[in-house]
Backbone:
């Protein structure tokens, strides 16, 4: 996709699996078509998409499937995060080869790393590909977190933006102060904070709720983008109600992979390689 | 066992992840209660 621009509602697409543990491509295709009627972009193979739980070959196969299915209708930001640098770099290259418009990566997980290691980890990924690349901050998914200082360093090394799922609007605002470049993209990583993020200049929202209610999320985005704050807040509250209902059964933690024995096919993780150089 | 309900059925329903039929019914009832599902 030429002139890649990130904007609007971007669901972290669920990955459906069949009973035998393989991705259910027919269902996946239907889900993609359902979403494409409403949303501005797609974020496959992230937390909702179970990417980090899949064998590498499965992730590459699904990346190719999604890009082919979407066929340029909306930008595809492919999540390639892994616990080790070498795998993340390999998956980033595969995402680029598959035709993804951009890549994104969670912080390396399981082990704790200092600032120097995190900067090195992401620098190697960024420099391995030519497509725009985003860092995915989600402290709830591990002990490592992106700081405003790390973000500023990575921005100078070619990082395109951040998807922040800290669930802390003050952290999001601190990131915005750390990198004040018009071409740097700030993406709020939860629909729960869409309005306060858009007020501050967020360019997009990666929304789990958009997997199920992309139409309502689209209305919320459109109202916020137009500055219709009363309407936007009414929809924000409705969206947050949806979140509360879904969370009653802990559905925020129950993703499509739970229907699948694929989660048992991970094997042992490779040793960490973000060694700080 | 969770199912991607709706999309699996091949009809233009919203895809919802449900642990079982009882949970599915409970969640759908609550979503209807807040006016976001028919």
Residues:
């Amino acid at each position: 996709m030429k002139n890649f621009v990130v904007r609007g509602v971007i669901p972290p697409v669920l990955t459906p699996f069949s009973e035998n543990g393989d991705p259910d491509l027919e269902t996946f295709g239907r889900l993609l078509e359902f979403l494409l009627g409403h949303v501005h972009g797609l974020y496959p193979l992230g937390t909702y998409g179970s990417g980090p739980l899949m064998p590498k070959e499965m992730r590459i196969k699904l990346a190719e499937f999604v890009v082919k299915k979407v066929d340029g209708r909306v930008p595809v930001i492919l999540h390639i995060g892994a616990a080790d640098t070498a795998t993340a770099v390999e998956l980033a290259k595969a995402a680029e080869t598959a035709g993804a418009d951009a890549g994104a990566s969670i912080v390396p997980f399981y082990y704790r790393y200092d600032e120097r290691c995190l900067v090195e980890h992401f620098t190697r990924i960024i420099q391995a590909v030519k497509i725009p690349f985003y860092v995915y901050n989600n402290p709830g998914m591990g002990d490592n977190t992106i700081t405003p200082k790390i973000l500023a360093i990575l921005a100078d090394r070619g990082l395109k933006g951040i998807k922040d799922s800290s669930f802390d609007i003050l952290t999001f605002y601190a990131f915005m102060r750390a990198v004040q470049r018009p071409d740097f993209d700030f993406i709020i990583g939860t629909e729960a904070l869409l309005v306060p993020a858009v007020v501050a200049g967020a360019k997009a929202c990666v929304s789990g709720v958009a997997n199920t209610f992309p139409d309502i999320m689209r209305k919320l985005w459109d109202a916020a983008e137009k500055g219709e704050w009363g309407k936007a807040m009414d929809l924000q509250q409705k969206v947050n109600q949806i979140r509360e209902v879904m969370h009653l059964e802990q559905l925020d933690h129950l993703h499509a992979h739970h229907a699948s024995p694929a989660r048992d096919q991970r094997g042992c993780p490779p040793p960490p390689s973000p060694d700080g150089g | 066992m969770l199912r991607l309900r709706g999309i699996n059925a091949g009809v233009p329903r919203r895809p919802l992840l449900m642990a079982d039929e009882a949970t599915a019914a409970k969640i759908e009832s609550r979503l209807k209660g807040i006016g976001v599902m028919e």
About this structure: The first helix of chain B runs from residue 21 to 33. Residues 3-33 of chain B form one domain.
